[in-house]
Design brief:
The complex is a heterodimer of chains A (346) and B (116). With 346 residues, chain A is mainly α. Chain A has a single domain (37-289), classed as Ferritin (Up-down Bundle), CATH 1.20.1260.10. Helix content of chain A is 70%, strand content 2%. Chain A has 13 helices and three strands, in the order H-H-E-H-H-H-H-H-H-H-H-H-E-E-H-H. In chain A, a hairpin with a 4-residue loop joins strand 2 and strand 3. The radius of gyration of chain A is 26 Å and the shape is globular. Chain B has a single domain, classed as Roll (Ubiquitin-like (UB roll)). Chain B has helices at 2-10, 53-64, and strands at residues 14-15, 29-35, 42-49, 72-77. The longest helix of chain B is centred in the middle third of the chain and has 12 residues, at 53-64. Chain B starts with a helix and ends in a 39-residue tail after the last strand. The chains are: A mainly alpha (346), B alpha+beta (116). The A-B interface holds A 25, 28-29, 31-35, 37-38, 49-59, 98, 101-102, 105, 108-109, 112, 115-123, 177-178, 181, 185, 324-325, 327-328, 330-331, 334-335 and B 4, 7-8, 11-17, 19, 21-27, 29, 46-49, 51-52, 55, 62-63, 66-67, 83, 86-87, 89. The structure holds fe (ii) ion (2 copies). Chain A: It holds the Pfam family PaaA_PaaC. Chain A: GO terms for molecular function: phenylacetyl-CoA 1,2-epoxidase activity. Chain A: InterPro entries: Aromatic_CoA_ox/epox, Ferritin-like, Ferritin-like_SF, PaaA, PaaA_PaaC.
């Protein structure tokens, strides 16, 4: 291809210019074909895969969303991990360990998916470490009592599931596949949480009160996990046009409210919202305004535990660094030994 | 030329991944394949980072078979996998198209004839 240019253009300078414009034309043509194919995949509701051409903004949006999601799973281990040693029975302890281990797995599935978009794993870890990346604000609230572990499983994992089920059909293949795996594992998380609350609400008066307090604390923040109201969520529209997001924040929030009302009744507990009421006309429960000032304040870093969560993550990473380095050094040494042995026998 | 320039303006900036991100991490990337039960093939489950094959296997067990999902695991260095070029846009697989006669449904004369 380039070998032909000098023949056609004996004057070297002309050939170079010609070559540059030829390269530009080819790049433009590749972009056009790539873009058309991408548009077609989205229009036909098919999946985009890692090596496909994609718009930079689509890639950027996904790296941000998928890695934030991964960071949330990782930081999300802290409030519950904190209760493993204090779980009230061996059974509850085993269950909680299994759940926390699942969350670690969810983080890893999602990091794998994010990595296929071109950002190396270590860079993603770095973004969380330096505080550059965000994670779900809900994990900046403390788990004060054992009942909070119940409320987290029921409400926080419940909200996460509501959000995640439609993401199984996200247009980016690796993200959707990670979500399928995650959703399969999540349903036990919500049920075990609900069961903790059920046991407490059928125990002593003090235990029932503990369960009620936990629900009172987690109800609002759990509803806010779906993000700001639709009219304050400018990026949602593009995400929906790209088939990443399938339902708006408010639609998902409504779906969640409709689900938890009867679940709360079955617990014998109340949801802390005086305006919560069935609306026959809409066929949904109406619910009161949420405290968005608090939400944005927590997002900005002023939640009860933002500082502590990140400090704990950093300490764990720092303290584990020598293990990662030693394992890499050992692997390199083993590889060298195998290489040397092969040379000797050759 | 002008036409190309106009078209280019409508196309958002974008592209394909140029460098392999996995090569820029401390531990290499491994692809994990799990056999869910005897008699079935190993199927791709996902990927993970690990310093060497034996750690990759252990991590794969903890990450992808926490609920009896597997009876056997393969781990393969991601860098060792050769893949067909997605840019060939179907051309690579074209020879299979338009050959309906490779499928039993192509042959209709035998309809209604038992066991055929
Ligand atoms: Fe999770
Ligand atoms: Fe969970």
């Amino acid at each position: 291809m380039s070998a032909q240019s000098p023949q056609l253009h004996p004057v070297e300078a002309t050939a170079t210019t010609e070559q540059i414009s030829e390269d530009a034309r080819r790049a433009a043509e590749e972009a056009r074909v790539g873009w058309e194919r991408f548009e077609q995949l989205i229009a036909e509701d098919k999946r985009v895969e890692p090596r496909d051409w994609m718009p930079n903004n689509y890639r950027k949006t996904l790296v941000r969303q998928v890695s934030q999601h991964a960071h949330s799973e990782i930081i999300g281990m802290q409030p519950e991990g904190n209760w493993i040693t204090r779980a009230p029975s061996l059974k509850r302890k085993a269950v909680l360990m299994a759940k926390v281990q699942d969350e670690a797995g969810h983080g890893l599935y999602l990091y794998s998916a994010a990595e296929t978009l071109g950002t190396p794993r270590d860079e993603l870890y770095e973004q969380l470490y330096t505080g550059k990346a965000k994670y779900s604000s809900i994990f900046n609230y403390p788990a004060r009592t054992w009942a909070d572990i119940g409320a987290i499983g029921w409400l926080v994992d419940g909200a996460a599931i509501t959000n995640q089920v439609p993401l199984c059909r996200a247009s980016y293949g690796p993200y959707g596949r990670a979500m399928v795996r995650i959703c399969k594992e999540e349903s036990f998380h919500q049920r075990q949480g609900w069961e903790i609350l059920y046991t407490l609400s059928h125990g002593t008066q003090a235990q029932k009160q503990m369960a009620q307090d936990a629900v009172d604390r987690f109800y609002g923040p759990a509803l806010q996990m779906f993000g700001p109201p639709d009219d304050e969520s400018p990026n949602s529209k593009q995400s929906m046009a790209w088939n990443i997001k399938r339902f708006s924040n408010d639609d998902l929030r409504q779906r969640f409210v409709d689900m938890i009302v009867p679940q709360a009744e079955a617990l014998g507990l109340t949801l802390p919202d005086p305006e919560l009421k069935w609306n026959d006309e809409r066929g949904h429960y109406d619910y009161g305004d949420l405290d968005w000032d608090e939400f944005f304040s927590v997002v900005k870093g002023n939640g009860p535990l933002n500082h502590q969560r990140l400090a704990h993550y950093r300490a764990a990473r720092d303290e584990g660094a020598w293990v990662r380095e030693a394992a890499a050094a050992y692997a390199a040494k083993q590889q060298q030994a195998a290489h040397d042995a092969a040379l000797l026998t050759a | 030329m002008t036409e190309t320039a106009q078209q280019t303006e409508q196309i958002p900036a974008g592209g394909v991944i140029a460098a392999d991100p996995a090569e820029r991490s401390l531990w290499p990337l491994w692809e994990v394949f799990v056999r869910s039960s005897r008699g079935l093939s190993h199927v791709h489950a996902g990927s993970l980072h690990a310093p060497d094959a034996s750690m990759a296997l252990r991590n794969a067990r903890d990450l992808y078979t926490r609920r009896n999902e597997g009876t056997s695991i393969w781990v393969v260095p991601a860098a060792e996998i050769a893949a067909s070029d997605p840019d060939s846009k179907g051309g690579y697989f074209e020879s299979a198209q338009g050959k309906a006669y490779r499928h039993a449904t192509y042959y209709t004369q035998s309809e209604g004839v038992p066991h055929l």
